[in-house]
Design a protein that fits this description.
The protein is mainly α and 226 residues long. It is built from ten helices and no strands.
Length: 226
């Protein structure tokens, strides 16, 4: 779990530094930082999504995942958790929930998050997660400078998500198919595009409600793709 610990620490450290900058950074500078991050997220998502080799699986995963997420109201559940954190620690920043949700999605559904957790779960040196830690640390500075302290708390779901993948891989490493990983990464890329669209304020997409697509893509690959 060394890679996960370093990754979480980098997010927290970057979030703290970015929050300090947020207090002194004029609104117009925060806005341009926000737009820059949005463009980066869209580009990253596209680069991940175009690598898919099973388009039909991706489509059905997104549709089924979106329906399940909407039924479970995952978006509202995450917002409630974020609001609870805000009340629990008595933060008054207006963008706490936006920072928490956006940073969580970015750090969890990227290819490096999935592949890095798998690499560590297989007992290899956590090179990917250590590299991701550097990237996430700087991203947290930029994110928190625009959205505040909520970014720092994204380390909680990141720890749960990556830690779970690492543990599952450690227990079932012999059964992992590289094709499943590729499609999982592709669906994650599509979700990142949705997140980027939200950050750019083009349209409000309930990306959190689409998260079950990451589960459906694995199930569909196991069932229909030899």
């Amino acid at each position: 779990m060394f890679g996960n610990i370093v990754n979480i620490s980098a997010i927290i450290a970057g979030g703290v530094l970015g929050t300090l900058l947020n207090r002194s950074l004029p609104q117009r500078y925060q806005k341009i930082v926000f737009q820059g991050i949005g463009l980066f997220v869209v580009t990253l998502g596209v680069l991940m999504a175009i690598k898919t080799e099973e388009i039909i699986v991706c489509i059905f995963s997104l549709v089924a995942g979106g329906l399940l997420g909407e039924f479970l109201k995952l978006d509202k559940q995450m917002n409630r958790f974020s609001d609870w954190l805000k009340r629990r620690f008595r933060f008054r920043t207006k963008k706490f929930t936006e920072g928490f949700v956006s940073a969580t999605l970015l750090y969890c559904i990227g290819a490096m998050s999935i592949l890095g957790a798998i690499e560590e779960g297989m007992g290899n040196e956590p090179i990917i997660l250590l590299t991701k830690s550097v990237m996430d640390g700087f991203s947290s500075i930029a994110f928190a400078s625009a959205l505040g302290v909520g970014v720092m708390f994204s380390s909680i779901p990141v720890a749960i998500y990556q830690g779970t993948i690492t543990l599952v891989v450690f227990l079932f490493a012999d059964n992992i198919d590289i094709a499943i990983i590729n499609e999982l990464s592709a669906v994650g890329g599509i979700l990142l595009v949705g997140l980027g669209v939200n950050l750019l304020e083009i349209k409000n997409i309930k990306v959190v409600n689409l998260l079950p697509a990451l589960v459906f893509v694995v199930v569909l690959m196991l069932i229909f793709v030899p």
